[in-house]
Fold this protein.
Amino acid sequence: MNRHEKSSAPAALPLVRKNRERLAAFLFILPSVLLIAVFVYGFIGWTGWISFTRWNTFVPDFTFAGLDNYRFLFSDFRFLSDLRNTVVFTVLFIVCCLLLGLALALLLDSRIRGEVWLRNLFLFPMALSFIVTGVVWQWIFNPSTGINLLLKKLGVEEPPLWYIHPEVIPGVQWGPIQIGVPLALLAVIVAAVWQLSGFTMALYLSGLRSIPEEIREAARVDGASEWQVFRHVLLPQLKPVTISAIIILGHISLKIFDLIYAMTGPGAGFVTDMPGVYMVETTFKGNHYAHGAAISVIMLLLVTLLILPQLLSGGRKEASGR
Amino acid sequence: MTRSLSRFGIYAILILLALCFLVPVYVVVVTSLKPVHEATLENMWNLPSAFDLSSYGVAWEKLSPHFWNTILLAVPATVLSALLGSLNGYVFAKWRFKGDHVLFTAILFGMFIPYQSILIPLIRFLQSIQLYNTIPGLILVHVVYGLPITTLIFRNFYAAVPKEIIESAQIDGCGIWSAYRRIILPLSVPGFVVTGIWQFTQIWNEFLFAVTITNTTNQPIMVALQNLSGSQIVQFNVQMAGALMAALPTLLVYIFLGRYFIRGLLAGALKG
């Protein structure tokens, strides 16, 4: 009402009509706003409340349990393994996707023939379901077949066990769990990188294409080598793209469920388990609703930590016309 | 000389990487074409001795009811969420009101939440309105949780429409609704294509809601595929044929409408 200067309706319109129109605009989005309010925020609140109750049997029990469920999780071997796996998976997955995506984008950007074909080829796994990816890669990494058949032909005596490998390297004991890289996760990461590095390639390619050729030429005229052009001209310009990619890939990996479910399951000693899988199994197979709710609250907090800075700065950036 | 050498290097690396990316495709296609006795572990990398399409028949028999379930789910859910997203996007792009930025950000947040964090209440709610284990229940879910991304894509799309068009329509007496219906909607075809393709692909490939909200004959295709490959008695050639069938609709969308698919992808990523 008191923000006429923000209004995009023409000044010639009478004020009454303008206000009426603004009300109509709000009514347009009201159904969606209500749906989001209930299904997102209401349900999150509801889940948060369940996470403080004793509902860990088939029968709902809403008596207040304080932090018991959270306390349970942070002493639970499976959940602590999940947190370790989440960190390892997220870091390796993001780094591999960024490096491979950037390399592909730079190669494709060097005016080659058949660019469109190759671009489409690297991006097509994006159109697949994690379930399909999981089913197929499970077979490729099956220890008694798949890649190991090729390795045996090459003379490898004891090929790796891939996703059923129970070991954690270097496996420093910390409380009940071993801190390190679970070898079995590497196979899952390969599958995930196969599916999503094309996405970072597409992001970087569109980023590269938006950098004017003159800037690169100017640097070259000044005597910069190709590496220096990349390091000091292209890379800084690609920073916003990198941040977008980290956020998208990061939130995918923090809540990953389908790929694990289809490819490996929790694994021996929970070496390939993730919070998303634990939540569904403990809630719907074990009827530990309050534990499940607490797991999902922690997942939500992790995702929020990742995206909040970007989400909040989004509005400001637009206002300054970035 | 060094230049042509380095170009040769670029092509060599790209072709090598392309071949690596195609390995799963090779495995799926080759295995699905093998007769049962050839689809064994030792034979995995070999070409089939003869084309045998019988695995497709077996896989189709098991998957087809779920295939139709998914079409019945994905088509209406895509249309509805695109329509609502278009309305929202129009308002957020062209109409300012108090708190619109906060509201928009609050809606966008719904795109990032892990759906586990709403799953228990959601299932209780669907049970209470008798939509648990039904296709309409899944449609409702996909429409609601599709709103953030469809709103975002449409808002970015409408931001490029000059506001003078709407202003002159207003001077001619058009209200917000008739400006939408007569001017915005006819301009929106590319926006609907991008949003529709994106949503269709996402809904087709979705698994978490599918596996927790349905448990019988109403299961969508991805759950059926997972059950198929999780069972010990099903042969590899059937599993691979099933995977290919389940992937085919979104692959076809990608092959024929890839341009729009990529635009949806970037729209969701670059402004998040």
Notes: The first strand of chain A starts at residue 168 and ends at 174. Chain A touches chain B through 101 residues (CB under 8 Å). The first helix of chain A runs from residue 15 to 50.
